[in-house]
Amino acid sequence: ASYDEEIREAEARLVMERQILDANVSLCIHRARETAVSTITSPQFLLAALGFGFITARFLLRPKQGSKQETGVAKKSLIGALVATAFSIVQAQFGGPLGMARWAATKWIEYRQRQNNSGAAYAESARRYPY
């Protein structure tokens, strides 16, 4: 009978430790994701990536003599790659273009509210659109 009680206590401790471990792993994953997203979307990283892209494109896409048409195609493909990168960053940070539009609208409303020093318009729009 005493062994049964000890077994129950040990099982309860194992369950509690497993729950704590799961919670810590989930927290670490969440923090790592937040850190990665904030790093990738930081202005310093974006400027560095843009500069690296321009330097790489400058050396890799040097125009060959007499091939102006190929240079135009290369520039278009580079622009396409930059646009795809921008959309992926928007997706990661805001959940898509609609999320970015909501964020921009919220910032614009806050700016207008501060500019007018009147909380009535902001309160009305916040009541209508709570997200």
Describe this structure in words.
With 131 residues, this protein is mostly helical. The protein contains 5 helices and no strands. It has helices spanning 2-40, 43-60, 68-94, 97-116, 119-128. Helix 3 crosses helix 4 (97-116) and helix 4 (97-116) runs antiparallel to helix 5. The chain is flat and about 85 Å long. The relative contact order is 0.05. The model has no long low-confidence stretch (mean pLDDT 77).
In short:
By secondary structure, the chain is mostly helical. It has five helices and no strands.
Number of helices: 5
Major β-sheet profile: none
Q: Sketch the topology as an H/E string, one letter per element.
A: HHHHH
- What is the helical fraction, as a range of percent? over 70%
Class by SSE composition: mainly alpha
List keywords for this structure.
131 residues; mainly alpha; 87% helix; flat
Give me the secondary-structure topology.
Blueprint: H1 2-40, H2 43-60, H3 68-94, H4 97-116, H5 119-128
Helix pairs in contact: 3-4, 4-5
